[in-house]
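Wait, mind explaining this?

_____
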Amino acid sequence: MAMAYMWRVLWWLSGGMTAVSLAGCIELFEPVVPGSSRDFLVVDGFINIQGRTRIRLSHTSDINSTTANAAEAKAALYIEEEMGVQYAMRDAGNGNYVSDSLLLNPAKRYRLRIKTALQREYTSAFVDARVTPPIDAVTWKNRPLGIQVYVSAHDNDSRTHYYRWEYIETWEYISPWNSLYEYSPPGPLPPGNYILPLGVITVRTKPINRCWATEYSNDIQLGSSVRLAQDVIADYPLRLLPASSANKLQEKYSVLVRQYGQTAEEYAYWEKLKKNTEVLGTLFDPQPSQLTGNIQNIVEPGEVVIGYIGAHSVAEKRLFISRAELPADFSNFTGYEQCVKQDSVTNPGLLPYYLYPGTQMLIDVVEVNQTKNYLIAKTECVDCQKRGGVTQKPAFWR
């Protein structure tokens, strides 16, 4: 499971308290949240019966902590088939463990065995394996609140009934100004108002105005057909992209949807996790419950362990949405609305003062009436990488 799902749950288990404002005269109240010395193992992942299994081991941290959850390093992990073989996983570093690409028998039951560096042993319960049915379609429609992405699936054999989805978003965007030149300052700026040498101006060989950014889903998406006549999920609303979606729809947008077919027990775990992480709010909301997974310390079965290990395959499908496909009147916020001005510098000796701090960049050099004009703009309006993207086009992009 993604760790973004876990923070409220871990807060609850660590003894956190919720502040509630009641109707009437409202006064800001910031409670002192007591710390906790309790340290729980977190097991994140599932057994992939048709590919590589990836498991991450970490530990809960105090709610007041500003550091990332500590990884459980140098552990030994195994995938075990009931009354059968054992498959070792290798340490990929930083609490991550990965298996070879496996093709496991879906008629068998499987579990995960963990032995930490301190010789503490854990196992998950043996679970039935599930072959996840393929995704029928990932579609989109223009709705009043934005672009709504849907996912549809079905199982002709009516063996799935319980579905979970994750998605990875990737989008292409372009900064307003294209920098044609790179500028290297002459050296450290001396004190006083000195006119410095121009520095070095060279033609830029790698564009920095077109980028691709990637973001992983951090919410829990569940669907069930158990109460329907057929094992069908039709147009499940997976992701809403409002016009203010930080330029995701500026040029081209793509979403890779991953589907997991689950057992009723695994689905119930994720459903409880969803309630614990998303429903918390006021005294009138359902209060969080103890999140019990299927992982247990062999010697100390009463130890709290966070996580649920299921066994299933993964189905994937990708959707592309280009700007040309959107309605002409679709209002799209790019995040570059403030980038409306370029500056021009005619005295090359002043360029180091404009460009040296890194707040502005050289865009172009234009000769007007035998005078060179050096066009410059704010760095964040020129270098798309400042918004977290990369200039390398993804291999799957089209």
About this structure: Residues 179-206+333-387 form one domain. Residues 1-24 have pLDDT under 50 and may be disordered. The two ends are 30 Å apart (CA to CA). The first strand starts at residue 41 and ends at 45.
